[in-house]
Amino acid sequence: MYRVLFITDNAEERKLLKSCLLEQGHAVSMVTSRQLASADFASPKTDVILMDLEETQTDVHHLCRLIRKDRVLKTLPLVALVTEEQLGHLNYSDGVDDYLTLPLTDKRLLERLRFLMWKSSRVEPTNGLKIGALAINFESYEVHAHGQRVALTHQEFELLKFLATHPGRVFTRDALLDQVWGYESYAGTRTVDVHVRRLRVKIERRGVRYIETLRHVGYKFVVPA
């Protein structure tokens, strides 16, 4: 059974999708975008989030930030329900993990949720990562590149750890500030650029690139061939 948080401003039109989930034994909490933005909103116990963007009354970017700011919701799989026309405007750096196009069949919704829950339930590395010539130990806070220990500051380590555990995913500077420095940080986006530059100097040796810049967008971690 999955606990689904269904964010929609079209509750009447989404009755069939909700019924489908309930019939399969899943728990469904339906909230509007305004309720989510309310200071009184209390996050229910949730496994996966469905975000209906067809006629949302809240800016999508702001909606995603509210979700990723929430202590309970920020790490959960986030699936956007969008129309074909909205696809070109979907920004994955906001934290969207997947999307489904509307209109949507019950079977497709259930299969996608099943896949996402399987994916999110896989065991994640707990003590470290080994990527090419780069070794990151989460417990000892040690990093080695090409067999040599690399001295990183705490924030440089946290930035590297975050990027390395999300390979291939693009993050804007604002998103990195939120995820690595925290929402209460007063650091500016320039701070992200400085830390990325320092990381590159320390870990990217012998022509091996780990952090890629997407101009006017942000950064992503790449696994060397």
Could you tell me the CATH topology label of the largest domain. Rossmann fold
Largest sheet: 5 strands, parallel
Number of strands: 12
Quaternary status:
single chain
Q: Tell me, what is the CATH class of the largest domain?
A: Alpha Beta
Number of helices: 7
The coarse overall form would be elongated
Domain count = 2
Order of helices and strands: EHEHEHEEHEEEEHEHHEE
Using the 3D structure, state the CATH architecture of the largest domain. Answer: 3-Layer(aba) Sandwich
Distance between the termini: 39 Å
Fraction in beta strands: 15-25%
**Physical arrangement of strands within the biggest beta sheet:** 2-1-3-4-5
| Arithmetic mean pLDDT | 86
Q: Structural class from helices and strands?
A: alpha/beta
Query: From the alpha-carbon coordinates, what is the Rg to the nearest angstrom?
Result: 19 Å
Superfamily (CATH H level) name of the largest domain: Response regulator
The percent range for helix content is 25-40%
Low-confidence stretches: none
